[in-house]
Amino acid sequence: MGRREALRRLSGLDPETWGAADASFPVRIPRTWFDRIDPDDPGDPIGRQALPDAAELVPAADDRVDPVGDAACSPVPWVVCKHPDRVLLLLTKRCHLYCRYCFRRNHKPGERQDPGPEALEKALDWCARSGARELILSGGDPLAVRDEQLFKVLDRLRHIPVVRIHTRAPITAPERITDALVAGLKERGPVWVVVHANHARELTPPVLAALARLVDAGVPVLNQSVLLAGVNDDVDTLAELSEALVSARVYPYYLHHPDHASGNAHFRVDPRRGVALHRALARRVSGIALPTYIVDLPDGSGKIPVERALAEGRLGIL
């Protein structure tokens, strides 16, 4: 979706805000996502996730360049290792949709968006020698790369017992989930796909069909959401999403407390309010529909439940 057409179709958009936001963190919206936005609702939760907002240009005192502590846990470029049994490989910095709350907003225009051949080889070699039992492919979005590149990486690291692909593509670009991709993942299993939906309106018929293609092929699918102010920070919305995911045979795995990335302060929810919402959700949905409410701490120690982080006084480091 081009800037000119978006500005024409959504009268509330400000071209100067779009330009300033795009210069800081790219504005990229697939047409399939844009068509879900309600043009008559300035607070539309689908639009809020993708459209630039003047609020993202205002720095907050508690912004962090590296909000989840990845830099200190990166032994070589494009690799993050926070736990001895898991290794995360960043295949690309590209995405189909650049979510405005993204915790990896340190992506700058003009910088390399994919590892070059030497950098990729070094990253693959480190992963191969890591001793990890789980390989996590992330980004950006690992499904923003071609099947050929994705399968090459999976084949190179096939000795790692379990693979997770963390991707928003089935939600933002469901046409990416082709029969060829699904067949390739099935052949290289066990591969788990972890998707990212924040609102039930994201689960359109093409999205549900893409998820079904994966599940029908025996590829387990989990979902991670982010608790976002103005998007899903009420129990009715969270319950509707969880129930829709379970109906689609997708397990609601995590509900993330928003990370303190530069430019996303207007999406943040007070953690005590988040805990209250999660407790209310637990009274509304079954166990298989209840995600774990977690926070990824900025010291690089990884994810822990928000209630535990509050009890231990660890959210003060945010």
Notes on the structure:
The chain is an alpha/beta fold. It has one domain: TIM Barrel (Alpha-Beta Barrel), CATH 3.20.20. 33% of the residues lie in helices and 15% in strands. It has helices spanning 3-9, 15-24, 31-34, 45-50, 117-129, 147-156, 169-172, 179-187, 205-216, 235-247, 271-282, 306-311, and strands spanning 79-83, 86-90, 134-138, 162-166, 191-195, 221-226, 251-256, 292-297, 302-305. It has a nine-stranded mixed beta sheet. Helix 9 links the parallel strand 5 and strand 6 (221-226). The longest helix is centred in the middle third of the chain and has 13 residues, at 117-129. The model has no long low-confidence stretch (mean pLDDT 94).
Describe the main β-sheet briefly.
Answer: 9 strands, mixed
Radius of gyration: 19 Å
User: How are strands sequenced across the largest beta sheet?
Assistant: 1-2-3-4-5-6-7-8-9
Query: What's the domain count?
Result: 1
H/E series: HHHHEEHEHEHHEHEHEHEEH
Question: CATH superfamily membership, which one?
Answer: Aldolase class I
User: Mind telling me the CATH class?
Assistant: Alpha Beta
Named at the architecture level, the CATH assignment is Alpha-Beta Barrel
Apparent shape: globular
The multimeric state of the shown protein is single chain
Total beta-strand segments: 9
* Overall pLDDT level: 94
Q: In what range is the share of β-strand residues?
A: 5-15%
Poorly predicted parts? none
- Relative helix content: 25-40%
- Structural category is alpha/beta
**Beginning-to-end CA distance, first to last residue:** 35 Å
What would the CATH topology be? TIM Barrel
